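Hi,

I'm pasting everything inline rather than attaching a file, because the server keeps stripping attachments. The sequence lines come first, and each chain or strand is labelled.
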Amino acid sequence: MIEAVSLTKRYGNTVAVDNLSFSVKPGKVTGFLGPNGAGKSTTMRMALGLDNPTSGQIRIDGKIYQDLKYPLRKVGALVDPRWVHPNRSARAHLAWMARSNRIQAKRIDEVLDAVGLTAVAGKRVGGFSLGMSQRLGIASALLGDPEILMFDEPVNGLDPEGILWIRNLMHRLADEGRTVFVSSHLLSEMALTASELVVIGRGKLISQSTTDEFVARASDDAVRVRSPHLQRLRGALTDAGATVHEVDDAIIVSGMDSANIGETAAAHNVVLHELSPQQGSLEQAFMQITGDSVQYHSDLDEAPGQVLASGTN
Amino acid sequence: MTLLAVERIKLFTTRSPWWCMLVALVVTIGLAALMGATAESITVSTSQAGYSFGMAVVMVLAALAVTTEYRFGTIRTTFQAVPRRGAALTAKAVVVGLLATFIGLVAGFGSWAVATLLQPEGNLALDTTAKWINVAGISLVYGLAAVIAVAVGIVVRQSAGAVSLLLIYMLAVESLVRVIPDIGDKIYAWLPFNVADRFISGSGGNGDPATSTSPLSPGWALAYFAGIAVVAMVLAVAVAKKRDA
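And the predicted assembly:
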């Protein structure tokens, strides 16, 4: 159980985390979602006692991190996979961490095996690829067999196989009854991984709910439909109260879910060639919800022509 | 004890301490060999001519032991594993200090042995306390200098910054202070490395002139230098506790 209570962090005049309160419960994967610069990493660093909150607290099972006796046995975290000495071997890196929290040495081989780094355990970490570093980071998070796990953007820079591996790992850890807290700026990734979502923007809480709830709220039920009898279907759907836009050889239906569209089509004897709920709109809606809270906007969207033009001057 | 073991593992699983250790010993013992081969009559104190160069290398080793942790972010992993920052950093200072003490011991006696080997008829008998200190005392001064370097490393956090600050101070700033009219010499008498030199070189009288202007006795000089190391470490820990890692 992780609990943030009125957590606030200021750097000079910038408020990185603003009166943030949420809780993360065991047995589930909880996503920590927000655009870049929303304060996700800062919040995680405060949870781990690395940064001091300006006010408020973030507690681990009722205790602040500094009061944990053997913290690695309670909380395993991957904040930044580059926090290793490049000339130290993977095994040596895990060895000093294990020793510091009186974790048995055989556990080092277990976690190396679990993340598939046994073969390169003696190699210097500086030569690792991003994916291997990420695996080492996960190994160090798992080292103390902790009840609580925190991962900051764990799939960043990973290949599809690595992404799938991490996703499955997190589900397995949650199924074992552990608390899994994972941050990401990608809603599509979180929709596949997390069953609960804590959403923040500009350091403020936007929502805490189940992922299904958030997705339902975020997506506007757009469904892409193709059919040889498009005109007939179009009339039927409009009569049923849906809004229809024409796109190339298909229509985008909003205000009605795919089940109802299918049934309407069947009732009118219309053959369907495609009936697909639109994931793209999910990201768009997420941007609408968090839109005001994105800290670093780019002007490129508005004026690509100007940028290009000034580049050729 | 656990934390000392942790810092020992960290120190010896990277390469730079080994290189620094090697360089420190080559510089000190090598210079003693050079003196032994060229000087007309060598004394105990001239056999230790490489003492301050060796100390410079030891301080580089000590500063790097902590600044590389900041450079690569392992200090955060360290504080994650051991949130009591004071304990973690003190353990590091102790382990690095002990290694420096060991280097000093090998450097001191190694230099003396090489000199004795090259000039068996030289005036190298360790027949007074002062001469013993001149050889064996190097270990203690290296150990304390390493603690000071660790403290500076904690505060400065950057390798280049910490190393240049330490070396410039030790090799230049202290002696430049003497140039200040009237009070320069009085300040210089109390500057740490000058005082440490008092402990090593004693009050002269071994057939060598005194090299330190400190008014302290060798024993008090060592205590003074140790006090500076402790104060530096206390300040550094206070800074590290207040800062975000």
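Chain B touches chain A through 27 residues (CB under 8 Å).

If the labels don't parse on your end, tell me and I'll reformat.
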